[in-house]
Write a structure and sequence with these properties.
Blueprint (H helix, E strand, L loop, with lengths): L8 E5 L2 H11 L4 E5 L2 E4 L8 E5 L14 E7 L2 H13 L4 E6 L3 E7 L5 E7 L22
Parallel strand pairs: 1-4, 5-8
Antiparallel strand pairs: 2-3, 3-4, 6-7, 7-8
Organism: Candidatus Iainarchaeum sp
Keywords: Aromatic hydrocarbons catabolism, Dioxygenase, Iron, Metal-binding, Oxidoreductase
Cofactor: Fe(2+)
Length: 144
């Protein structure tokens, strides 16, 4: 067996409408469809990339082993990342960090249930020649 690609992510959410608004209206993730208790999103790469299932309740604190974050590519230039930073600030979305990963530049935010999301731009494709570049220590992100 061999994994060909990451197919999709499924999140349990406390409030479906609030999460749909966040992923569709704030992040611009295309909504494929909704039915009671669930919503699917896709950017066209596969049948769906994100599925939200409403379970209600309060978010659990993220304190132990388990899920850390998902990464969503938003472009290939710092200009696109800067525009996303401005959009998050405009929408009062908490930005929890930034990172220069040598091949990507990233901003980290949280969704309405506290799930961390990395919004990143590929700044080069050097990793195709040297896959070990992704293991280099993260640097502070400096945007001009």
């Amino acid at each position: 067996m061999r994994i060909h690609e990451l197919g999709h992510i499924v999140f349990f959410v406390s409030d479906l409408e609030k999460s749909v608004h966040f992923y569709e209206k704030i992040l611009g993730f295309p909504l494929i469809g909704k039915q009671p208790g669930m919503a699917a999103f896709g950017a066209g790469r596969t049948h769906h990339e994100l599925l939200l299932i409403e379970v209600g309740g309060k978010p659990l604190p993220k304190t132990g082993p388990g899920f850390y974050h998902i990464g969503l590519k938003i472009g290939t230039t710092d200009k696109e990342l800067k525009a996303a930073i401005a959009e998050m600030k405009k929408n009062k979305i908490e930005i929890v960090g930034f990172g220069d990963h040598h091949v990507t530049h990233s901003m980290y935010i949280k969704d309405p249930d506290g799930n961390e999301i990395e919004l990143y731009v590929d700044v080069n494709d050097d990793w195709k020649k040297d896959p070990k570049l992704v293991m280099k220590p993260t640097r502070a992100l400096e945007l001009d």
